[in-house]
Amino acid sequence: MDNAIDFHLLVLMTSNLDGITKNYNLIRAGSTTVTPNPKFSFVPWDYDGTFGRNWDSSPVDAKTWLSNRLFDRLLGNPLLQSQVCPTLARTPWQSMHDQQPRPHDG
């Protein structure tokens, strides 16, 4: 769960529009006696169309909301809402929101 939250935050912070649909791999380490059922982890790749640019180098609309069915289900998960959100999800999201660059008014 932590890796999925971190991955989604990375996608949002870098405006990686392809990152939530195709530009990642899911990996899983082999089973060992210590870890008989290892968890899957997200591994991002192909970051050429990020930081405010689409794959064709056109600018990304700043109001674009990044989501997909996997993360919609993750955010709707009762475990995430009751245990993880207060400590791992809401805090980074709020921190990101509070620290995001704002246009200069002067």
Main pleated sheet: 2 strands, antiparallel
Task: Give a count of the beta strands, DSSP E runs of length 2 or more.
Answer: 2
CA-based shape: globular
Structural class: mainly alpha
**End-to-end span in angstroms?**
42 Å
Q: Please mark out the parts with pLDDT under 50 across 5 or more consecutive residues, or reply none.
A: none
Number of H- or I-type helical stretches = 3
Domains (count)? 1
- What radius of gyration results from the CA coordinates? 16 Å
- Relative helix content: 25-40%
The helix-strand sequence is HEEHH
* Widest sheet, order of strands: 1-2
Quote the beta fraction.
Answer: 5-15%
Query: Quick check: average pLDDT?
Result: 71
Topology:
Elements: H1 2-13, E1 24-28, E2 40-44, H2 69-75, H3 78-99
Antiparallel strand pairs: 1-2
Helix pairs in contact: 1-3
Kindly describe this structure.
The protein is mainly alpha-helical and 106 residues long. It has one domain. Helix content is 39%, strand content 9%. Helix 1 (2-13) packs parallel to helix 3. The chain is globular and about 50 Å long. The N and C termini lie far apart (42 Å).
Short description:
With 106 residues, the protein is mostly helical. It contains three helices and two strands; from the N terminus they run αββαα.
List keywords for this structure.
mainly alpha, two-stranded antiparallel ribbon, 106 residues
